[in-house]
C-alpha cells in the first residue's frame, strides 16, 4: 500500500472516530437531561381545594390567653390581630413594648412554659416556643429597641403568637 492511499484512509478513520465520539457525548447529554425531566406530563391541572379566608380582625387591646399568663414586667400593648376562622382554632398575634431587655422577656416566658407544664420547649437567644398538653402552640419572639435622645436606653419589643387548639 502506498503512502498516498493510506492518507485518505487515515483521514476517514479520524473523521469516523470523531463523529462517533461526538455522538456518544451527545447521547450522554440527552440521557442526563432525560433524568431531570419527567417522562409523563400532567394533562389536567391540580385540583385546588377551598381557600381559607385568613380574615384577620384587629385587636383593640391584649387578650388573655388560656394557660399563658400576660407578661408581668412593664409592657405596653402595641398592636394585635386574631384569625377566628383559622384551621384548628383561633390564631392570635400580639406585639408589646417592654422596658425589660430581650433576655429577661425570653427567660420569663421560658419559666412560664415550664411552670404551666408546656412541652417541647424550644429556647433561643431571641425566641422561645412550646406546645401545651391541650394542643395549643405559643411562641414569643423579641427585638431590641433603642430609644434615642436625652433618655437614651435599650429596651425590647416582643410578639406573642398563639394558636389555640379547638377539640
Strand arrangement in the largest pleated sheet: 1-2-3-7-6-5-4
Which consecutive residue ranges, at least 5 long each, have pLDDT under 50?
A: 37-42
Q: Could you spell the SSE succession in H and E letters?
A: HEEEHEEEE
Q: Outline the biggest β-sheet.
A: 7 strands, antiparallel
Shape: extended
What helical percentage do the residues reach? Answer: 25-40%
Beta-strand percentage range? 25-35%
Total of domains:
2
Number of strands: 7
In DSSP terms (H or I, runs of 4 or more residues), the helix count works out at 2
The averaged pLDDT comes out at: 78
Distance between the termini: 95 Å
- The structure class reads alpha+beta
Radius of gyration: 33 Å
Give the helices and strands, then pairings.
Layout: H1 3-36, E1 57-58, E2 75-83, E3 91-98, H2 102-115, E4 119-123, E5 127-131, E6 137-147, E7 153-163
Amino acid at each position: 500500500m502506498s503512502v498516498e492511499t493510506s492518507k485518505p484512509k487515515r483521514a476517514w478513520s479520524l473523521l469516523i472516530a470523531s463523529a462517533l465520539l461526538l455522538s456518544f457525548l451527545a447521547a450522554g447529554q440527552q440521557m442526563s437531561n432525560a433524568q431531570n425531566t419527567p417522562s409523563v406530563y400532567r394533562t389536567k391541572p391540580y385540583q385546588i381545594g377551598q381557600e381559607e379566608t385568613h380574615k384577620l380582625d384587629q385587636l383593640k387591646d391584649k387578650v388573655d390567653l388560656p394557660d399563658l399568663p400576660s407578661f408581668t414586667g412593664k409592657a405596653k400593648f402595641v398592636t394585635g390581630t386574631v384569625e377566628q376562622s383559622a384551621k384548628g382554632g383561633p390564631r392570635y398575634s400580639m406585639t408589646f413594648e417592654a422596658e425589660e431587655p430581650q433576655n429577661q422577656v425570653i427567660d420569663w416566658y421560658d419559666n412560664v412554659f415550664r411552670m404551666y407544664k408546656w412541652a417541647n420547649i424550644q429556647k433561643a437567644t431571641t425566641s422561645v416556643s412550646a406546645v401545651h398538653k391541650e394542643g395549643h402552640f405559643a411562641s414569643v419572639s423579641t427585638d431590641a429597641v433603642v430609644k434615642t435622645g436625652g433618655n437614651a436606653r435599650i429596651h425590647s419589643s416582643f410578639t406573642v403568637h398563639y394558636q389555640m387548639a379547638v377539640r
